[in-house]
Design goal:
Strand order of the largest sheet: 2-3-4-5-6-7-8-9-12
Shape: elongated
CATH topology of the largest domain: Rossmann fold
Number of strands: 12
CATH architecture of the largest domain: 3-Layer(aba) Sandwich
Radius of gyration: 30 Å
Amino acid sequence: MQTLADYIRWVGELDFHAYPFRDADALVLSNIVYYDLSPVFSDGKPEHTVSDCIPMIEAGEAKLMITGGDLGNGEVLEKAARSKRFGTLRISDYENTVRADPPLQFSAAVFHAPAFSFIAYRGTDASIAGWRENCMISFTETEAQKLSLAYAERLIGDGVWYIGGHSKGANLAQYAACRLSADKWEKVAHVWLLDGPGFCPEVLDPRLDERIDPKTTRIIPEYDVVGMLFEPKITDTKIVRSSRYGIVQHSLATWQVDCGELATTDHNDPGSMWLNRLMNDWLESIPQKDRPVFINELFDALAADGAESLEDLDLDRLQSVLIRLTGISKTTRRSLRKLPKQLFRDDDLPKIPKSKFEKLHRLFSDLRIQGAGLLLTGVILVLMSGMLFELTTIIIITAVAAFQMVLTIRKLVKQRGMSGEMRGRFFVLIAMLALALILFFKEQAMFLIGSGLYGIVCLALSFYAIWTGSKQKEKRTFLHALAFVEGAVIGLFGLGFLLIPQSIVQPFTILLAACVALDGLIRLGCWLVRYIIRRRHEKAVSDLGRK
């Protein structure tokens, strides 16, 4: 099976008159626009050819403006630039605008041949503004969408015009095509939507697709996630095979071609259908009024230290992000909590009666259990102090993977076979185990995740201790005051875990272990005092009865 680079090699010497424009050509042009073409246009000329990219490629200055790395995109650009078919295409009206406030990431170019002009919109680059704007389509029309319409309105003129784009670029192409004025739309011969999200129904009327449907082709990979978000309803939808597996199939360079045409299949991978259902259920569970709060707080935290792209998020900045995320609003915490609930939801699991929770609550309210548990925790922290983050992170990920395995086995036994949901669950399970292995060998990543985990857990326990103290019926008692002291101390440890350097984690953990053990001894002491007082009271009552 051929890749996109193989396709260029096969048709490279054929112009568009000998071999007319087709789906694979839309893929090639939508791939080229992912490159920063500003070095090519630095001379101020309004037009260049694709072959003018060759010096940039040979100098090693071809910058791919995309997250996820080069999966063959560079080979596509180089072969296209050196071919007769694509190298002679003229490029004009190259635009690239990235702005943090208000968020905007927009890039597009027009490719001209004697027989047609193709407007290509770029998908998301690595900028934080671009990713923020991606998420904003769930609650508003974006600046990039409005610019895509203005761009097409300004440039479409005489001749045959095509519009296309990949990922976010497909969403921009869809928006521009749906909103074009009637006279401009008449000049558009065809639209290609390449694995892009559609319109959020609460923001834009999905019936807008009815206008463009007769002249539109939608192409998605076999394992599709992005193109299923707010899925566009296009009749001519093709499912293309890929040379890669999983979500990496989103990359255009991995899509396969067979004898000049796309290598298609009749169905999506069942695992991607399960993952898509998970994401859609999660998005639907977040009220539209909560989405701006959730997205703005998340991306404000990412950009707070001056980071402009995902590549700027080094270890120090990620630690700062974790600290800021501890102060997120209840709205954002509620939205984040819904994702793991959706991920590990299993309607077949038996419901635990409320009486069971009440028994557990009574058990853990016993000062003896609390004291013994805190002493044991202190001992464990001392024993693990040398590898606290490493062991804890591995244990948690392994435990979550084990839980996912139990759910998967339960489903397999019940359904007696492998379904789409099962493949999705296996995909999540394998990803978790792979993450555990990667983290085990990546010391800095382990430290970052571990410090964030312990910091957030300690801060959560701090809030809980203070909250339970405020809810106690008996005020002005020793245990009432102890709850507030515990909350304050554990809160300080939480901030400490988020701020301390790696070199003092061990002594800091030993200090925490000492405080936890001391707390355990105090609670055991409280129980002993209560026990002695109760016994004395019972003896006094007994003696009084005998008299």
